[in-house]
Amino acid sequence: MFLFRSLLANFIFLSLNSFGAHYDPNPEEVAGYRYQALRPQNLDNFADEDVIVIYRGIHFLPANFGDAERIEFIQGNQVNEPMYASATYQQAGEIYGSTEYETLDLCGQEISALVNVLDNTGECEVAGQLFTCARYPFHELYSNDATKFLAELAFPSADRNIMFDDMDFTANPLLSCSDRVRHPGKYGFGLKNYGVNQPLLPLYDINGRPRHPILGKLYALVLDAAAIEELKPMNVAEAHRRGFLRLQSHFRKDILSEREISIAGYIPAECVVFEMPLQVPSFAGNYPQYYERKYGLTKTRYNNFKAIFTNAATTPTRRMEKSQELMNGIIKASYEDNKLIYKNCIAKRIPALFEEELGNLDARIGTLNLDYEID
Fold first, then answer.
1. 3-state secondary structure 322-362
2. What DSSP state is assigned to residue 288?
3. Is residue 369 part of a domain?
4. pLDDT tens per residue, range 288-317
5. Does a structural domain hold residue 10?
6. Which of 146, 183, 224, 334 has the highest local Cβ count within 10 Å?
């Protein structure tokens, strides 16, 4: 963790001193801007059905998004558009963001079938462990060590052939989601360790203005019984609970707490009902009243952050730490004292919005491959 923070601090220093003064467009700076809370769309498709809502975060990692690609993606709207795994794009010979949906859907369905058929292998031994079917070691490896998973996918070792033998792609075939907002929010804001790749950072200037105000997007997906039967999502955390696989739960790498729900190949367009740009506030100027509704920030909290970001003596490491604290608080309030609380954190707001729109969401639905219910 110390090494990660040191690398980030160095990246901040280099960014502030070497990368010029590029600022991404900030919707709040457009004349006449008014904050309007986002609402889910196309929910009529799920009227009177038992559904579950899951969440997915996408971060604008500089290794994957240049300035132009990032801005284009921000300005677009991906609601009611399908989502595809990296392997789907690879199989289709298309670049990320391609709209060749017919080709991508076919490749997504093929990849989904290749992964889901692992449910049917029966009891097997993989890397010295006994599993009830090959899909469990497949997800165990992916969730615990994605780098090793991709290496094995490209060049399977003999004791993992049963998992990868029929897969002729080398890119990631899975789309990771969660039934809680916290982890997808952290992923979308860039609060993960990306290894050699550095996340996109807000990079607050001396006036408290972020150079990158939007760092990713959060999506909400609705799955009904038909979607679950088709996609066969794997509730990885529940599989761990029932002893079918083992996720790391050490406090330094607590994979289990991510509550991963994994879908292979693709997610159909009709399931994607909500998107939220993951934005950080600007601290240039006086406190905007809508910041309490948009970010949960009280005026006191706003002024505390502003004092740090506009102070020339604040070190790069301190700026990075306060940026992380800010983003974590926007996702989920760590405490509530009615003064410094992030009153409107998205971990409260977004699930409540879907309960308001769809009613009671604790209905048991199918299995997600395992007995699964929202608690």
1. HHHHHHHHHHCCCCCCCCCCCCCCHHHHHHHHHHHHHCCCC
2. P
3. no
4. 999 999 998 889 889 999 999 999 999 999
5. no
6. 183
* Digit-coded pLDDT (tens) for 44-71: 888 778 888 999 999 999 998 999 999 9
The pLDDT value given to residue 197: 84
| Domain coverage including residue 182 | 34-286
In single-letter form, the type of residue at position 104 comes to: L
For the record, the structure tokens of 67 come out as 């300035």
Q: Are 235 and 370 in contact, with CB atoms under 8 Å apart?
A: yes
The answer to whether 74 and 240 are in contact (CB under 8 A) is: no
Structural domains counted in the chain: 1
- Residue 47 inside a domain? The answer is yes
How does pLDDT run across 186-232, given as a tens digit for each residue?
999 999 877 778 999 999 999 999 999 999 999 999 998 889 989 99
Q: Number of H helices and number of E strands within the chain?
A: 14, 12
Amino acid code (one letter) for 220: A
Give the DSSP letter of residue 200: P
Q: Which of 263, 347, 278, 274 is nearest to 70 (CA)?
A: 278
Give the Cα separation of 96 and 372 in Å (integer).
32
Grouping H, G, I as helix, E, B as strand and the rest as coil, residue 273 is strand
DSSP 92-148: HT--TT---HHHHHHHHHHHHHHHHGGGGS-SEEETTEEESSTHHHHHHHHHH-HHH
Which positions ≥6 away from 236 have C-beta within 8 Å?
139, 143, 245, 247, 260, 261, 262
Taking the C-alpha atoms of 60, 61, 65 and 71 in order, what is their torsion angle to the nearest 10 degrees?
Answer: 30
